[in-house]
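Here is one chain, start to finish.
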Amino acid sequence: MKLTLKIWRQSGPEDKGAMKTYPVEGIDGDMSFLEMMDVLNEQLIEQGEEPVAFDHDCREGICGMCSMYINGQAHGPKRGVTTCQLHMRSFKDGDTIYIEPWRSKAFPVVKDLVVDRSSFDRIIQSGGFVSVNTSGNTIDANATPIEKENADKAFDAATCIGCGACVASCKNASAMLFVSAKVSQLSLLPQGDPERKSRALNMVNQMDEEGFGNCTNTGACSVECPKEISLENIARMNREFLKASVSKE
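Its structure:
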């Protein structure tokens, strides 16, 4: 398979950046998208050029590092998969593929396709935790009864891997889906009840401070999410935030 890759190259945060064209060939349909990028980088190194910088880690759809905007879609044309799970059989011989980093003020470009997502870390630090009894009189989590419906919803929310596809897909670069998944995950469980109010307030406020936009209600975030996080979580977070705001001392 022969392909033409148009890739965003940016040497650093202060560089203007531009799209550059690279032809690649010998691409097998069973290769993952990241393996194709590896082939390109080997080619560039052999030619004495600097390889394309991109994030990757587990390559199993778990870590969320492989954040690429492919042909105008976060993680590419397939639904419910990350970039590392996207295979080249999704493309045709002779295709031109456009590859860009996430675009958001809160996700500044570090280099090429690598963006700084530490804003997500700061949101988690502001409230994405639970109180833990370390006095010696701890209670086994499995001994705490939880309704199956709530447990299932909490588990579904917990599948969020924080890749940032929701932000990249939203025309306002909103992080509502990510934040709501983390708020929902803990608000649905009894272990998360002590910080319930402060969590909703702090995480939403931190999200705003980081520069993420408001929710557009278009649902693009959920469609592009590789874990298919439901929009119901945004509604739940809004309720949690409203109740916390009304009862705030």
